[in-house]
């Protein structure tokens, strides 16, 4: 059975949500997000930079949430939730996956890190990262002007983007600045039956 090491509000939610969408059984192992644990020898052996999440499939262990989503889909998805590899549709799917983690989540992650590590956070840095996040939100909003999901039909790319919206909603107020298509999309994602796992408390 797939085992996902999970800390509240972290990118492990992507894998948990994906498995719920696919109806795959999964063991969720709640872990401490405290640096003492994340930089312990035990955790660094699983994630060499002390980050969350980690996925195990039997003896195999991996880090990087986007790679996990792709692995689960390729291995257990039976062609669901992603276009056929090698097609331009699949290229579009990859584009949004990478956009989600390396372009949209990047400034959002810096906002989170600054709030956690600096008291007070560097206001100019946070403002710049909010601005960068808003550029990404605008791009998603525009792409969604004629569709319900980022590729038209729901796919793994929506799960990748969905995590960006969790951070956007919790750590910025840019969703309040309009962006109707993006706001409607986020409500649509959250109302999917499988998305109940996003608010589940796995620690108890
Ligand atoms: N690209 C990585 C990012 C992992 C990441 O930044 N995880 C966050 C939690 S969602 C974390 O562990 N942050 C701690 C830190 O950066 O100090 C992935 O997708 O797994």
TrEMBL record:
Transmembrane segments: none annotated. It holds the Pfam family GST_N. Gene3D superfamilies: 1.20.1050.10, Glutaredoxin. Residues 1-80 form the GST N-terminal domain. PROSITE patterns: GST_NTER. CDD domains: GST_N_GTT1_like (cd03046). This is GST N-terminal domain-containing protein.
């Amino acid at each position: 059975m797939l085992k996902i090491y999970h800390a509240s509000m972290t990118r492990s939610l992507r894998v948990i949500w994906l498995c719920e969408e696919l109806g795959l059984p999964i063991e969720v192992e709640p872990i401490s997000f405290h640096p003492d644990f994340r930089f312990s020898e035990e955790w660094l052996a699983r994630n060499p930079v002390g980050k969350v999440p980690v996925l195990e499939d039997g003896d195999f262990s991996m880090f990087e949430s986007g790679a996990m989503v792709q692995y689960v889909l390729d291995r257990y998805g039976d062609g669901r939730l992603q276009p056929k590899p090698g097609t331009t549709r699949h290229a579009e799917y990859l584009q949004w996956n990478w956009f989600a983690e390396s372009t949209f989540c990047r400034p959002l992650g810096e906002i989170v890190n600054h709030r956690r590590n600096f008291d007070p956070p560097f206001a100019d840095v946070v403002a710049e990262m909010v601005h960068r996040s808003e550029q990404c939100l605008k791009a998603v909003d525009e792409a969604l002007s004629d569709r319900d999901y980022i590729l038209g039909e729901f796919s793994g790319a929506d799960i990748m983007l969905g995590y960006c919206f969790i951070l956007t909603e919790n750590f910025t107020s840019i969703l309040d600045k309009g962006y109707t298509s993006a706001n409607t999309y986020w409500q649509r994602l959250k109302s999917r039956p499988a998305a109940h796992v996003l608010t589940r408390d796995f620690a108890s």
